[in-house]
């Protein structure tokens, strides 16, 4: 039982250390700035006449 708890603790520690690296944080800020944060979007084109 102690080995299972130790393995779980080590696994959680490893995942917490690897899951959030500075490179991933920098990449996520770049993707956020390129996808909709540039300013106002132009309005859509008008619908075609007729219908």
TrEMBL record:
Keywords: Signal
Residue segments, region Disordered: 30-51
Keyword match Signal: yes
Signal peptide annotation: 1-20
Pro residues: bias regions: 41-51
Protein name: Uncharacterized protein
